[in-house]
Amino acid sequence: MSLTDNPRPPLPTWITDAYEVLSTRIVDSSADHDGVPSIDRERAVSILTEIEELALERVDAEHAITRLLERGYLYEVDGELRVTSRSD
To answer: Which of 44, 46, 50, 53 is CA-nearest to residue 73?
Structure first.
């Protein structure tokens, strides 16, 4: 997306890397009671801190999730994170 379409600067690579990890885990998870794949926010933080390639501290994982929510990559329902859209 060019800056003329979206005047906000792009997310840092480490946050988009975190998105790739989370979106894959969410899509691969079993659907919740609404039939939509999701994972608990606390589990998402744990996943991001356990992936050695990301090397994120808890505060960084929480920040990445917040930025992904703010930008609309993810959305949250009752503490469960879901993928807004997935482009393969």
So the answer is: 44
Alpha helices in the chain (DSSP H): 13-28, 41-50, 58-71
Q: Does residue 30 contact residue 39 with C-beta atoms inside 8 Å?
A: no
CA distances from 45 to 4, 5, 19, 30, 57 (A): 33, 31, 12, 18, 9
Average pLDDT over residues 48-62: 95
- Give 4-8 contacts, CB < 8 A, sequence gap 24+: 8/71
Q: Which two tokens stand for residue 10?
A: 């792009």
Span 71-83, pLDDT tens digits:
999 999 998 999 9
Q: How many angstroms separate the CA atoms of 58 and 56, rounded?
A: 6
| Of residues 67, 59, 51, the one with CA closest to residue 13 | 67
